[in-house]
Amino acid sequence: MKLTIGLSQINTVLGDVQANLEKHLEIAKQARSQGADLLVFPELSLTGYVLQDLVPTLAHRPNADDPVFRPLLAASQKIDMQVGFVEVDERRRFYIAAAYLSGGQVLHVHRKVYLPTYSMFDEGRFFAWGDSVRAFDTRFGRVGMLICEDFWHASPPYLLWLDGADIFLHMSASPGRGLNGSDRLESAAWVDHINAAYASLFTAFVAHANRVGYEDGLNFWGGSALYGPNGSLLVEGPMHEEALTLGEIDLTQLHHTRARLPLLRDERPGLVARELERILHSPNPNPGR
Amino acid sequence: MTDLTINPAVARKILTGWIRAEINRAGMQRAVVGLSGGLDSAMSCFLAAEALGPQNVLAVRMPYRTSSQDSLDDAQRVIDATGVQSATIEITPMAEPLLERFPDMTSLRRGNIMARMRMIVLYDQSAAFGGLVVGTGNKTEILLGYTTLYGDSACGLNPLGDLYKAQVRQLAAAMGVPESVRVKPPTADLWAGQTDEGELGFTYAEVDQLLYMLVDERATPEECVQAGYDEGFVRKVVDRIRRNHFKRVMPPIAKLSNRTVGYDFLYLRDWGT
User: Domains in chain A: how many in total?
Assistant: First the structure.
């Protein structure tokens, strides 16, 4: 089975959900007309990234009663979409979330489980921590979604892999930093490096959509990319410019790669679980030394 | 030796895009730059001209009667090279009455008055021309506090503030800033023969390296001494960074209410744009 994935690296209007929604709908149309089956947007694509005290005013619930999700769900009749938004739960906690929309339905919502609260980041001050990492079924097979810092940690992609994901959808609003002599910022090089590594280690497809534009002094570097099960880069978006980058993937590649390299077959989650249990329950589980 | 090499093409793309985006978000298309004849203001002028188009940039030369002719000439070279609009507004007749009122004034006070006089002129031109003032302070001088608060540090946005002097030099070379501007010793040009390095007591080449280690790499002063830096030099620089922090932050507001600007009223300047 073949499918075309669209990586939509957009700029956003900070705190203007309506303006960002219109851009999503426009790009969905454009992507569909160019033959895309699945469209991936960046982290917090409906709101912008450094939201701070705007968070409670921009929150939505991903269902057909919501004025923002209603048109997005309608658009998902023609193209599957992963969008980034601020989710509020029934008890008024706010999450950085990703929703997968298909055929007018919300197939899955992922709440960011790792909120960077260090250096220039302050997410833990404004958002609640997600508490689960689950793969889910789509018309293209089993998929897993992660948001930025989630995949800076090795465990969430690993869990998704064990939960059956063969297509990883990673979304970021990654601020560019680490200017040196290279043609890539350090942050861009690092993210590319680990996404290629996940594709290789999990013999899976990894699609990464990253934002562009600026918020105050921060720049977002774009460079959205798609990797195949051999770890190779399939397509890549430009740096620092808005773009819709399409890449066709052939799911039979999973068959070929895993016949050659049976990492998934040989993985031993039982061993991992036993050793984790032991580590967590040892008398001194996390020694500060 | 710390490697302060930057890729100028990456910096150029980010910074020109940023100047354009942030000025547009402020509802404007134009910029105003005070041009001293030195490297930093030339750099900001080049970046603004590329970001906005030279016709949308006003470069203002603001000599005082003791300013050197070399500075004026070098500023003119930048104006010619970029094709920006320009104006020359002498600050002597504005500064003189205040300077004459206090004949025993220290050179620090005199320098501050000139820097702030230039700020007044620039902000007035900002309103007249309809452009944001683009700052010219580099990371080295911001960290050392080698700047006049509400004077040369005053701006609407600053594209150079995260580049050390050595890195501004690399970007300037790549973007074609005239050589005479790039090779001359940095100076505030407040009196004849003044140089930054003479006043600071160390060279940019030395202090850029040390600052990178202290700030970017988060090394302790002790680790810098162990790495071979003179202890007195390290202490002097660390002390300057700390003492001048007030120039890098907004003045604190005394908190009384439940929600206070600066503490828990948190929005980016780009809010809504």
Answer: 1
| Contact across the interface for B271 and A54, Cβ inside 8 Å | yes
A-chain CB neighbours of B212 within 8 Å are none
The pLDDT tens digits for B231-255 are 999 999 999 999 999 999 999 999 9
- pLDDT tens digits for B125-166? 999 999 999 999 999 999 999 999 999 999 999 999 999 999
CB A77 within 8 Å of CB A116? no
**Residue A98 within any structural domain of the chain:** yes
Partner-chain contact B14 A50, CB within 8 Å: no
Which amino acid, B266?
L
Say yes or no for a CB contact (<8 Å) between A240 and B14.
yes
What is the distance of C-alpha A85 from the center of its chain?
A: 12
* Contact residues, A window 8-37, toward B, CB-based 8 Å cutoff: 13-16
Residue B267: CB atoms within 10 A of its CB come to 15
Q: Per residue in A26-85, pLDDT tens?
A: 999 999 999 999 999 999 999 999 999 999 999 999 999 999 999 999 999 999 999 999
Tokens 């589980």 label which residue? A285
CATH label of the domain that carries residue A113: 3.60.110.10
User: Where does residue B147 fall: left (phi above 0), alpha (psi -120 to 50 degrees), or beta otherwise?
Assistant: beta
* pLDDT value of residue A287: 65
**A219 contacts chain B (CB < 8 A):** yes
How many domains in chain B?
1
